Amino acid sequence: MPSVCFYFQVHQPYRLRHYTVFDEDHRYFDTFKNKSICQKVANKCYLPTNRLILDLIKRHEGRFRVAYSITGVLLEQLADYAPEVMSTFDALARTGCVEFLAETYYHSLSFLYSRNEFHEQIFKHMDTIENLFGQRPRVFRNTELIYSNDLAEAIEEMGVFDGIITEGADRILEGRSPNFLYKPPKEGKAKLLLKNYALSDDIAFRFSNRGWSEWPLMSHKFSDWVNKVNGNGYVVNLFMDYETFGEHQWEDTGIFNFMRQLPEEIMKNPDNNFKTPSEAIASYPATDVINVPGLISWADTERDLSAWLGNAMQSNALHELYRMEQKIKKTGDKTILSDWRKLQSSDHFYYMCTKYFSDGDVHKYFNPYDSPYDSYINFMNVMGNLEKRCGKTPQNRQKVMSQLESGI
Amino acid sequence: MLGWEFPPFISGGLGTACYGLTKAMSKLGLEVTFVLPRTICADNPSTHVKMRTPADANFHHVDLESAELKNIKFKAIDSPLKPYADAGTYRHEIEEMIRAKQKLHGTTMVGNENDFDDDKAHYAGDMYTEVHRYAAAAVKLAMQEDFDVIHAHDWMTYPAGMAVAAVTGKPLVVHVHSTEFDRSGENVNQMIYNIERAGMHGADKVIAVSYLTRNIILARYGVAGEKVEVVYNGIERNGNGLSIGKTGIKKDEKIVLFLGRITMQKGPEYFLGAAKKVLEVMDNVRFVMAGSGDMMKKSVELAAELGIGSKILFTGFLRGEDVRKVYERADLYVMPSVSEPFGIAPLEALNHDVPVLISKQSGVSEVLTHVLKADFWDTTEIANKIVAVLKYPPLQMTLKEHGNFEVRKLRWEDAAEKCKQIYEQLIDQAVCV
C-alpha cells in the first residue's frame, strides 16, 4: 500500500547587484536580473507545471495530490514580476488537493545562528501562506532540508507542527528504509518524513542523463519501482526542486509527458495512492526513532552543510550577518530589516562555495557570479553599507537632539 | 633550442620559462642543446653554473653542473659589444649558406626574403644586428651539432630558427611567449612583426602559451589553426616552506605588490589608478612597484600627479632573495596587464602564498580559478577587490589556501611532455615524407 508523496520546493532568491566598496546607495538587489530570471522560470516551469498539476488533479478527481513549499522571497517576486503564477497557485490551493508547507520566509540558515530570527521567519511565512492560500501549514521543512535532533526539538516546542520533512540520508537511516515514518528521540507529536533520494533523484537529476543505464525513464518503469516498495513501506517521498520541470530538465527531455502519465501509471495498482505530507502523517504511525545528533542536509553527495559553511569566507559572512541582528532590529526601520533578511537567503552563501568551483557544476545554476570570491566581496560590501545605515540612525538622532538642546 | 635569456640573467618571464621547460625536459630524458646569444657569467655561486673555456673560438660552451639539468648542453654565442658588423652582413652570410644548401638539396626557401628588408634602412639598432648575428652563428653551430628538432623561443630567435631549419632541413617549432601586439599594443614595430610572422609561417608547428595568444596568432598573423598548439607554462614547486616565518612579521601597513617590467604591456598606470581609489577609502596601505622599464619615469610622475607619491614605493628590478623578501611582505599581488600572453609571475606569487589579482586579459587567467580577476581598464573594480582583500582576512586566507593548491597542478613536466609529443609528431611526419 505505498502512498506517493510529492513535495516541490519553489524558491528564487533576491540576487545582489554588483556593489563595490565605493557604492553608497541602498539599492542592493539586481532588479533587472531578478525580474528576468523570475519571468524566465515562470514561463519555462512554474506556469506550465502548475497547469499540468491542476489538470492532473481534475482528471483524477482529486486522487492526485501534491505539496509545495514556496518561499516568501519568491512569493514577493512573483507578485511583482509574474502575477499570473500567483493566480495558478491560488487555483491549485482551491482544489483542496494541495498542501502548503512552512519554512523560513527568507529561505535562511537562521536556525543555525538565531533561534529568535528563526521563529519570526517561520511565523511570517505561515501568515503569508494563510493569507494567500487560506490554509495554515502543519508541516515544516527547513532550508535545504537541514535537520538535526535540535531542530526537531525547536520545531516541537513551537507546538504548531505535526511533522518535519528532511533528507533520507544513509547515515541517519543506518540501513532502514526511508519509506516509513519516523520520530525524533525526544518525545513529541511531530513525525518525520524522509526523502527517498534514490527515486527522487531519478526524476530530478538523472531523468535526461543519456549515460544512465535506465535512460529513457518512462512513467511505467518508474511505477514498477514504486510498486516494489509494496509491503516494505508506507510512503514514497518524492521531494525535489520545482524547477526540475522545464528548467533543470527541459521540456524536450520529455519531463512533462512523464509527469502527465505518472499518476495514472501509479494508480494502475489499486494498492497505490497519493497523499500530501499531512495526510501521510495522519495515516501512518512512526515506526522507529531516528537519531540525528549532527546536522544533515539534502545537498551534494556529502549531505552536509559544507556547501554553505565549507570555507572561511562563508562562515565569516554568516557570522557577521547575524552579529548585526540586534543593531538592525533596534533601528525599527522596516526597509533595513527587509534588506537584512533578504541577505539571509542561503543562496548567497552557496555562491561562495569553493568546493567544486574548479570543476564547474550544479553550483553554477543561476549563479550570478564568476567566482566564489567575487560573491563574497560583493556580499561584504553590501553588508558594510547596511551596517553603516543602522549606525547612522541613532547617531543622527543624537546629533539632532544635541543640536536642539544647545539651541534651547 | 634557441633562446634569448636564461637565469640568472633574465629581464622577464622568458628566461624563467626556458629554465623550467628545459629542466623538465631533462627529466623526461630529452637531450637539449640550448643556444644563447651571449656567455653566461657565472658570478653567482648559488646557481651552480660553471663555465668552461670553449675549444672553438667562436663559441663558449657553458656547463651547468647540476643534476637537474644533466641533459642540457649550453652553447653561448659570444657577443662582442662593439664593433658590430652591419646587420646586412649577417643576413648575407645566412642567405649564402642557405643558397649553398639549396643547391645541394633542391629545397625551397623557407620564409620570405622580403620580410627582413623593409625597415633595414631606418632601423640599425643593436637588437636587429644581434638577432641576425645570432642567426648566423646559430647556423654555424648547428652544423656541428646533432639534433632532431629546432625549438625557437620568441622573435629574436626566429631568424636563427628558420636559418637552421633551411640549412639542416630539420623541423622547426616556434614557441610564442609573447607577440608584438602584447608588447606594443597597436604601435607595432613592423620589422619585429615581420620577423614574427615569417617565423610562425616558416615553422612546422607553433606553440602558444595560452588560447589568448593562439587567437592573436590566428587573427593577427594569419597562421592556420591546426598548426598552433597551446602549451601552458608551469611553475616549480617551492620546496622551502617560506610562509612559516611570514606570520611573525608585525606590520601596521598593508602591502600591495606590482612585480614585473614597468612597460605599457603590464598596465602600470592602471595599478596607480586603482591605488588612488583604494587610498580614498583606506589609509594604512602601501603600493610597491618592483621592476623597471620604459614607463618607470612616467609612472613616478603619474604617482606624483595623482598625489599618492608617498604611498608608492619604486624598488627597481629585483631578483633572487629580494623577490622572496618582497613576496613575504606582500598582502596581495596585482597584475593589471593590458595584454599578457601567459604571466608566470602570478604563479610565483601564489607559490609564495600571496593571493593574486590578475587582469582578465591574461593567458594565465585561463588556468587559474582561485584568484581574483578584473578587466585591466576597470580601476574601480581593481580597487574594489584590493580593498576587499585588505579588509577581509577570510578572503585572503581562502584565496591563499586554494590558490597555492591549484598552482601545484601547473607543472613544467606537463608542458615538457606536451612539447615532447609535438616533437615526436613532427619527427614522424618528417620520416613519412
SSE blueprint:
The complex is a heterodimer of chains A (408) and B (433).
Chain A: E1 3-10, H1 31-59, E2 66-70, H2 72-81, H3 83-94, E3 98-100, H4 110-113, H5 115-133, E4 139-141, H6 149-158, E5 163-167, H7 170-173, E6 181-183, E7 191-195, H8 197-204, H9 219-227, E8 235-241, H10 255-267, E9 273-274, H11 277-283, E10 286-289, H12 306-309, H13 312-323, H14 325-331, H15 334-342, H16 346-350, H17 372-407
Chain B: H1 13-27, E1 32-36, E2 49-52, E3 59-64, E4 72-77, H2 87-105, H3 126-144, E5 150-153, H4 158-168, E6 172-176, H5 180-184, H6 190-202, E7 205-208, H7 211-221, E8 228-230, E9 254-259, H8 268-281, E10 285-290, H9 296-305, E11 312-316, H10 321-329, E12 332-335, H11 345-351, E13 356-359, E14 372-374, H12 379-391, H13 393-407, H14 412-432
Parallel strand pairs in B: 1-4, 5-6, 6-7, 7-8, 9-10, 9-12, 10-11, 12-13, 13-14
Antiparallel strand pairs in B: 2-3, 3-4
Helix pairs in contact in B: 1-14, 2-3, 2-4, 3-4, 4-6, 8-12, 12-13
Description:
The complex is a heterodimer of chains A (408) and B (433). Chain A has two domains: 3-289, 7-stranded beta/alpha barrel, CATH 3.20.110; 308-399. Helices cover 49% and strands 11% of the residues of chain A. Chain A contains 17 helices and ten strands. In chain A, strands 1, 2, 3, 8 and 9 form a five-stranded parallel β-sheet that branches. In chain A, strands 4-5-7 form a three-stranded parallel β-sheet, with helices on one face. In chain A, strands 6-10 form a two-stranded parallel sheet. In chain A, helix 1 (31-59) links the parallel strand 1 (3-10) and strand 2. The model of chain A has no long low-confidence stretch (mean pLDDT 92). Chain B has 433 residues and is of the alpha/beta class. Chain B folds into two domains: 13-234 and 413-432, 3-Layer(aba) Sandwich (Rossmann fold); 242-407, Glycogen Phosphorylase B (Rossmann fold). Helix content of chain B is 42%, strand content 15%. Chain B has helices at residues 13-27, 87-105, 126-144, 158-168, 180-184, 190-202, 211-221, 268-281, 296-305, 321-329, 345-351, 379-391, 393-407, 412-432; strands at residues 32-36, 49-52, 59-64, 72-77, 150-153, 172-176, 205-208, 228-230, 254-259, 285-290, 312-316, 332-335, 356-359, 372-374. The two termini of chain B are 23 Å apart. At the A-B interface, helix 13 and helix 17 of A face helix 8, helix 12 and helix 13 of B.
